[in-house]
Amino acid sequence: YGLYDYLRNSIQQLELPHRKAALIVPAFETLHYRLTFPKSKAELLSMLDMGSLYTFRYHVWPKGHAPTDYAKWRTATVPYRVAWQPDFEPYVVVRRDCPKYDQRFVGFGWNKVSHIMELDAQEYELLVLPNAFMIHMPHAPSFDISKFRLSAGYRGCLQTLREEFHQDLSRRYGAAALKYLTAERSL
After folding, report:
1. Residue ranges of the domains in the chain?
2. Which GO cellular component terms, listed alphabetically, does the Swiss-Prot or TrEMBL entry include (predicted)?
3. Most buried of 35, 37, 127, 182 (most Cβ within 10 A)?
4. pTM for the complete prediction?
5. Which 3 state secondary structure label does DSSP give 71?
6. Does residue 62 surpass a pLDDT of 90?
């Protein structure tokens, strides 16, 4: 509740129209199909402590949102900066003129990861908003995630696309983009 107004105010206060920044909206999830949506951060924290909410994908893909630093978010009162880490895929609010999602990554796999990587390569600040949150509701698996899980060919194609993306980043951003390739190889 009130997220739209909070985002609009944050955009103005942080002078987002005049700086390269991605505002991160921390993501949570529930395993229940029915949920009384929390009206405040305090209510969300209470639900988190009671176990009716969880940090997003903590049990299946913690790397995707761990850099958000949920422990810090719990007590944060002002936006804070986080650093890019491999496989980071937060939900963000950015200016319209930011890099577009890479069209190679349709379906399941690497769309948000590659986008955040490109933002980082362009030196966008990654700022976590202290009073914003979203809740992912359970739903049936997508057709594309099923293909990813069941098809070695799909996973192989995705790996090839990832390698091409890394090469493109290296060509566009030079030595600064090597950290992405190094991070990928160390996984």
Report:
1. 1-140
2. Golgi apparatus; membrane
3. 127
4. 0.90
5. helix
6. no
